[in-house]
Amino acid sequence: MNRSWTGNRPLALAALVVWAVAAPAAAQTAGDPESEFNAGLMHLRENRPAMALDAFKKAASKDPKNPYIQKGLGVACLRLNKFDDAVSAFRKALVINPYYVDVRNDLGTALMLSGKRAEGKKEFLTAFNDPTNPTPDLSARNLGQAYLEEKNFPEAANWFRSSLGRNKALVAAYSGLADSLVGQGRPEEAIPPLEAGLKEVPGNAELLLTLGDLLYRAGRLSEAKGKLEEAVRLDPVGPAGKRAGDLLKQFK
Predict the structure, then answer these.
(1) Can you give the residue range of the structural domain that contains 159?
(2) DSSP letter, residue 175
(3) How far is Cα 121 from Cα 125, in angstroms, rounded to an integer?
């Protein structure tokens, strides 16, 4: 099999919190900062990052002290590969509200993508250690991914396990743990965690693909074929289903 086991999974952004204001929704008018912010969110959801960036910039010009708008700016910049601008926006969000801890996940991601890996990992670690962080599972998963990309497989595995200790339904952490164990030459040890993951997230095509691949490597061909076929059935046109379909060709 020709699967690439490292560096092929994106870092995770923390969820973009919807900005709540005192004024009722009915009082919004076109061009006010909340309307521009909501427009930016809509453009992000519909994969129009350039339009999202424009909307968030308009919102920020009218409400420059709003940390959620600054986070929106940062996310839009990341989508457009404007990494330095993203770093600036996320840092502004933290200056405005130092307790907006999950923004550190986003800042760490932007720093990593800009090539400042040590600074990025430091932000992830700071976020993970903060007791007010609402997404420590993402912080640990991002640290795992960072070490995985650096081929420090034991450290990566430790962080993916930490992530799963906080959130047993985080699919990316199971996949990352499998990648880390394969990188250490211990692919058979990745099978039980993936099987446990499918009990937590039944019917997940990515986990089925990864498990099917590892079962094939372990010589458990009938089990592997079943998992890959299920991945294709559940995700026939998605990336996991297509990859599983490619792997199934080896059984013919």
Answers:
(1) 25-202
(2) H
(3) 6
Given a contact cutoff of 8 angstroms between Cβ atoms, the answer to whether 224 and 212 are in contact is yes
Q: Is 173 in contact with 209 (CB distance < 8 Å)?
A: no
What tens digit of pLDDT does each residue of 40-73 get?
999 999 999 999 999 999 999 999 999 999 999 9
Contact status, residue 228 vs residue 248, Cβ threshold 8 Å: yes
pTM, two decimals, is 0.85
For residue 189, give both structure tokens: 């040890």
CA-angle at 43, arms to 41 and 48, nearest 5° = 140
Q: Is residue 81 part of a domain?
A: yes
Q: H-type helices in the chain, by residue range?
A: 33-45, 49-62, 67-79, 83-96, 103-113, 117-129, 136-149, 153-166, 171-183, 191-200, 205-217, 221-234, 239-248
Domain of 116, CATH number, reads 1.25.40.10
CB 96 within 8 A of CB 8: no
CA 43, chain centre distance (Å) = 19
pLDDT in tens, 68-89: 999 999 999 999 999 999 999 9
| 211/207 Cα distance (integer angstroms) | 6
